[in-house]
Amino acid sequence: MPTAARRVLALLVLAPAAALADGGLLSVADQNPLIRGAYLPLPPMAGAPAAGWGLAAGLQWSNTVNLEQSATEQLAVDEETAELDLELARAAGAWRVRATLPVLYRGGGVLDAPINDWHALLGLPRGDRPSVADNAYRIAYANAAGVRLDAEHGTALGDLALEAGRALIDSPGARLALFAGVELPTGERARLSGDAAVDAALWLEGGAELGARFALDGRAGLTRTGGSLPLPAERHVAFGTLALAWHAGARTDLLAQLDGHTRVVAGSDLKFLSHAVILTVGERYRLASGSLLELGLSEDVEVDHSPDVSFHLGWRWPLGAR
Q1: H/E/C letters for each residue in 22-88?
Q2: How far apart are CA 171 and CA 19, in angstroms?
Q3: CATH number of the domain that 103 lies in?
């Protein structure tokens, strides 16, 4: 079994053993534009109320340049995406429900020059970036079987996710919940924000306190895709998340998080259309009002399997009892 696949499987084994039923994870996802239409549930942002309603918004801003080809496939990805995830959640007793609607913009963006300057400052390789103009846009794919893709830029709704879960364990130091969800086809295949089908997923999520200063959180699950992306999709995709948080202060947590998933696009040998393992480092801060802010920076651990860099900003407003 390839090393990368073993890493993803390790996530799936370890995640259920950790658990915070309301989530202690950074709410980030793989921003690969060619697989974003598949239902890979966002981790729940921390700070959801124990009872009543809550609102959350998360912004993921990613940039990537990936030029890849094999004997039978050719891929060109040069784009920037800003995804705003809007969430409405409710807690009642042991039950949790939430609805999440993404709004995505894909285009040439503005980050190419700062990323090039950063790489030059640190002496890092620039990958495929010297081959393309700054702030250009292209997402194109072709293979020998006649599959062709030339994705449009612009703004589009993503697929609406409806999710419900129930706490299985709820104690002061450890919690575990079982969740199920469906993703409805409100997105646009032409802009790679949906797969024009109903997807479904089942997963465990939770966490445990490791003494007074650390917490381990995670989840593991399986998605059943209902359509194509518009590239052909695997019928089943496994996903997992594992995060270690350090309670650095009364209101501040510092986190390191790994997110992984198995192959989403079927029948491809290209790295960018394969599995992914993503590292996110970030901070979470609780305001006196009870609102919660989080910041994160994501990099592709498996190089060229996901976007080069993604920035995250999240904000949760608890409307019910805390």
Answers
A1: CCCECCCCCCCCCCCCCCCCCCCECCCCCCEEEEEEEEEEEEEEEEEECCCEEEEEEEEEEEEEEEE
A2: 11
A3: 2.40.160.40
Closest CA to 65 of 81, 50, 52: 81
Domain that holds residue 263: 3-318
Alpha helices in the chain (DSSP H): 3-14, 112-122
Mean pLDDT per block of 10 residues along the chain (322 residues) reads: 42 35 77 96 84 93 95 96 96 94 95 78 73 90 94 96 95 92 96 95 95 94 93 96 94 96 95 96 92 94 92 87 46
Report the 3 state secondary structure along 101-124.
EEEEEEECCCCHHHHHHHHHHHCC
Answer yes or no: are the C-beta atoms of 320 and 51 closer than 8 Å.
yes
d(CA 51, CA 54): 9
pLDDT of 320: 56
Query: How many domains are contained in the chain?
Result: 1
Residue 14: both structure tokens together: 């370890």
DSSP-assigned letter for residue 250: S
pLDDT, residue 44, reads 84
Q: What count of Cα atoms within 13 Å lies in the side-chain half-sphere of residue 1?
A: 9
> What is the distance between the alpha carbons of residues 35 and 320, in angstroms, rounded to a whole number?
35
- DSSP element (H, E) containing 208: strand 199-210
Side-chain-side CA neighbours of 125 within 13 Å: the count stands at 6
